[in-house]
Design brief:
Layout (H helix, E strand, L loop, with lengths): L9 E4 L1 H7 L2 H16 L3 E11 L2 E11 L2 E11 L5 E8 L4 E7 H19 L6 E6 L3 H9 L6 E7 L3 H10 L6 E3 L3 H5 L4 E4 L4 E5 L9 E4 L8 E3 L1 H4 L3 E4 L5 H4 L15 E2 H6 L13 E4 L4 H18 L3 E3 L8
Parallel strand pairs: 1-6, 7-8, 7-10, 8-9, 10-12, 11-13, 12-16, 14-15, 14-16
Antiparallel strand pairs: 1-17, 2-3, 3-4, 4-5, 5-6
Helix pairs in contact: 2-3, 2-10, 3-4, 3-10
Length: 327
């Protein structure tokens, strides 16, 4: 994938612009390629920080790709109550230019759902599986849209704290896959071969007794300190694979293990895709947990895909911080 560097313009890309150009097949492939690039050492090392505010926090994530040479910085302001607000800045470090400013919520939803899809395939999700989705926000909706593009899903089982919101999401789903709404998290997961958690919860939603034997758990929600969706017994003895094996011991589900050393994690998704890490034998009925906190090079890959397609379709608002040469 290449991104034109013929202009020093910056392109402002809104949520509608992003939705207009992204398709699930392209996004899933872009995310998969970015993890493979990480396994091959073709990324700029990710960095993350959090700045407390009186009523929430500012979350920062930076990282990039070497081919194409692009670097992204995501800044999300997350109030304790209310919706987050954020942007992604996409830089060309070689050309010393800011290529784009993107609304972050849409990129994050696409990136997170596509990561869940890639992880599900790499960790052995089978066709004709039933899937529980805990959450009713953008990511939950994106997971319901995206997963059937790669895995034959027999049914979705949906739970949210607000049952009306869950019913609305189930009704809005345009897929032919049925979506069943449940009153409790355990009611949803009891039916599921794959469980996807994507809530802002700060206390466990599910315990081992809520899960089928051998259920694959994709924990996508715990991406900052204090957030958690899985009880201790779900993690204890599980095979844990992460998007970022170090970060999950600080801000992911793995941070709640009694021993949060990095060796608590089998490996990262990129290494699994590249064959450098393999799941232990005899895992057919073992619990496998994918612990995801979100990682910057995946943001970069999706933002680059958006920019390339937006430029090709003339979408977004181009502008210059300084006048072009000759003006």
């Amino acid at each position: 994938m290449t991104v034109s560097a013929s202009s020093r313009e910056t392109r402002l890309l809104s949520g509608p612009d992003i939705r207009a150009v992204l398709t699930w097949l392209d996004t899933i492939q872009s995310v998969r390629d970015s993890f493979r690039a990480a396994a091959a050492g073709r990324i700029l090392g990710p960095a993350a920080a959090q700045v407390p505010t009186p009523d929430g926090s500012l979350h920062l994530k930076a990282g990039g790709l070497l081919d194409p040479s692009l670097l992204s910085v995501k800044a999300n302001l997350r109030p304790d109550a209310g919706r987050a607000l954020g942007v992604i800045l996409l830089f060309d470090p070689d050309g010393v230019t800011l290529r784009a400013v993107l609304e972050s919520a849409e990129v994050t939803a696409y990136r997170t759902a596509a990561t869940a899809v890639v992880a599900a395939g790499a960790l052995g999700a089978q066709d004709n599986c039933s899937v529980a989705v805990l959450g009713t926000g953008k990511v939950a909706g994106a997971v319901i849209e995206a997963l059937p593009y790669e895995i034959n899903v027999s049914a979705f089982h949906l739970w949210g704290r607000n049952r009306e919101h869950a019913a609305q999401l189930a009704h809005a789903n345009g897929s032919s896959v049925p979506v069943h709404v449940h009153d409790t998290p355990g009611g949803a997961t009891a039916h599921a071969d794959v469980v996807v958690t994507c809530t802002p919860s700060r206390s466990p939603l599910i315990e081992t007794t809520d899960l089928r034997d051998g259920a694959l758990v994709l924990a996508m929600g715990a991406d900052s300190p204090g957030k958690r969706e899985l009880a201790d017994d779900v993690l204890a003895g599980a095979i844990i694979v992460a998007d970022d094996p170090v970060a999950v011991t600080r801000v992911g589900e793995t941070a709640f293990l009694p021993n949060t050393a990095a060796d608590a994690v089998l490996g990262d998704l990129g290494s699994l895709l590249a064959g450098a890490v393999t799941l232990p034998g005899g895992t057919a009925r073992a619990r496998v947990v994918f612990d995801s906190v979100g990682i910057a090079f995946v943001d970069t890959a999706v933002a680059a895909l958006v920019l390339r397609k937006a430029e090709a379709n003339g979408l977004g608002t181009p502008f210059h911080f300084t006048p072009p040469v000759g003006h």
